[in-house]
Design brief:
By secondary structure, the protein is mostly helical. The chain has one domain. The protein contains 5 helices and no strands. It is globular. It starts with a helix and ends with a helix. The mean pLDDT is about 85.
Length: about 90
């Protein structure tokens, strides 16, 4: 599934980790439109996204275990929404 995305990319290859990170940002954005985050939640979420960007390349399992803990502090539903969205797109 990913060989087409990685092999035919004009710029940097789109790895499963980067795709999952993109889907995480989409999930956070759609959730924020319905239920706006507080400033404290926004700080926490931005630090999570920044830490993931610095991590460069995690497996999907490592990403999920990190997100389950981090997103649980903000809203328990966020991880479930991310998981649904990523499973539909990644697999």
């Amino acid at each position: 599934m990913f060989s087409f995305v990685v092999g035919n990319s004009a710029c940097e290859p789109v790895t499963p980790f980067r795709l999952a990170l993109y889907l995480l940002i989409q999930t956070l954005d759609s959730h924020h439109r319905l239920f706006p985050f507080t400033s404290k939640q926004l700080v926490m979420l931005s630090s999570v996204v920044f830490a993931l960007l610095r991590a460069v390349n995690l497996s999907y399992v490592e990403l999920c275990s990190a997100l389950q803990t981090a997103l649980g502090y903000v809203d328990k539903e966020l991880f479930v929404k991310f998981k649904k969205r990523s499973l539909l797109k990644l697999f």
